[in-house]
Amino acid sequence: MINLIPPHARRQVVTEYWLRVVSVWLFLLSAGLLIVSVLNVPLYVLVDQQKAAYAESSQVAATTKAQLEANNAIITNANNIARLLARGSDPTPFSTYLNQLEALAPAGITLSRIYLDRQDPEMAGEIRLQGVSATRQDLAQYRSSIEDSEQFVSAELPISNLAKNQDILFSITIVPDISNMPTS
Fold first, then answer.
1. For residue 161, which phi and psi values (nearest 5 degrees)?
2. Cα-flanking dihedrals φ and ψ of residue 181, to 5°?
3. Please, which residues bridge with residue 172 across strands?
4. Are 174 and 101 in contact (CB under 8 A)?
């Protein structure tokens, strides 16, 4: 029967056929997209609610963290005050140690530099002395008198400082004994 239709009319029928096929497929595609969009609305609402809940939870956690840090600072300060009160006295000033070191120095020892290290506010750290000794015997005697003193735990003198006999540049590292040092 199609052979009976003239070619011009035949082209119109084919064009109309394909136009209808494409329009039906576009309609089906738009209906599918509309269905997918409608089905994604609950998912969007759920994600949005979870995002809001996590934001609120994050804000509460940040506030709690700030409070904990403030409380930690207060507790640390209270512990430091309690430690000072339990100790019963002020930290020993470095001048006490320095006066003792100067008193122990024999006549041939000249101190040129003193390095003080107090890492903990309640305890004295290392003391490093640099100076010049007239003789090796004066330097050895000074080191021995520091070690024999009850106020100091140790006095480390590098062996290289004892290489010369006279006019010796020396460096001694001293660790004070904070338990025996009287406070001034």
1. -70, -20
2. -80, 125
3. 129
4. yes
Which pLDDT belongs to residue 183? 47
Cβ contact 174:130 at 8 Å: no
Residue 130: count other Cβ atoms within 10 Å of its Cβ.
13
Contact 175, 153 (CB under 8 A): yes
Check if the beta carbon of residue 142 is closer than 8 Å to that of residue 152.
no
pTM of the model: 0.48
Q: In the chain, what percentage of residues exceed pLDDT 90? A: 39
DSSP-derived secondary structure letter, 160: G
Radius of gyration over every alpha carbon of the chain, rounded to an integer in angstroms = 45
Reduce the DSSP state of residue 1 to 3 states and report it: coil
Q: How far apart are CA 171 and CA 24, in angstroms?
A: 98
- Span 113-124, pLDDT tens digits: 888 877 665 566
Q: What pLDDT does 95 receive?
A: 79
Distance CA 12, CA 7 (A): 9
